[in-house]
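Re-run with default settings, no changes from the original entry. Doing this only to confirm the output is reproducible before filing.
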Amino acid sequence: MCSTVAFPFSSPASVSWLQTPPLQREQPIYTTRAHVFQIDPSTKKNWVPASKQAVTVSYFYDSTRNSYRIISVDGSKVIINSTITPNMTFTKTSQKFGQWADSRANTVFGLGFASEQQLAKFSEKFQEVKDAAKLARDKSQDKVDTLSNHSQESGRETPSSNQASSINGTDDEKIFHVEPEAAVLQTEKEHLKSAVEQSNTNAKKWETELQTLRENNARLVDALQESSANVESWKKQLGACKEESDTLREKIAQLEVQCNEADQEKQQNSQLSVRVQELETELHEKEQELENLRKQAEIIPQLMAECESITAKLQTAETKNKELEGRVEGLQLDIEDSQQKQGNMKGELKKFMDLLDGKIDELHEFRQGLSKLGVDN
């Protein structure tokens, strides 16, 4: 399976993020090198290289704002400027590749590392920074709650303040000092009440949307399982699922716009975002499986053609082999005839040699006889 691609969960209005290098108040806390990729905004499933080679990727901490950023600069171009939030998740899609979605940047960043150890270290650091950002947000929320409680207590203490002012000053002084504070407290109470009502309304909407998403995702999983039986039918179902996924992304974008209105709404929506991201990861894995099947299907005709060519060559070789076998048999017959003739010639030659030896013996005896006759004379 290929690397998983997650879709951003934000509205188009969130694209206006600042691409600025690290500020002087920010300090680097971890640095590594990796190849940087961004999701193709048109297809939402293909990676586009943001750097031609491995570049420096660093975590920066802003002590003034108590925030964390991932920044990478290629020459004079800022290719990553992502502020870490508690809702973000870093996903390992392979042994050396990881990714995370940035709703503010309206994109998905991918990093390709040289080793598994670098990927594991970067993932651990991402989780640490995410936990630190969550802790900072919780502290900020506690401060807001403390201020709200303090305001409510001040509202309950207003009558005693009125009594003190009426004792220590005139009616004009009482009107000047007390009435603006009471109006401010009343306004804060109304804002808090409207925020609670809006949060309850949005919670019901999110439950409905979550149920709809679960049903749609269940249908999507069923369609992906059926795709193994018929690839062409799976393509059609996949197209329908993509359209449905686009609709879901639009709904998620609308939910993200509503979630930006309150931190409490973001906390409730984080679980939904993580679930949708997991489903989109599964969808990307299935798409990659389909792509692998397509590649294998493209190789099959080539293999069949090579097989036919090899078969034809084999048949030709077998024909030539039969011809050579016939020639070998003919040569063996010729050799046998030649050997037989040679044997006959050897027999005749032996007879001739025996006859010649007899004649030589007779000549030798005849010569000896002539020698004896010469001696006698």
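DSSP finds five helices and eight strands in the chain. Residues 190 and 196 are 10 Å apart (CA to CA).
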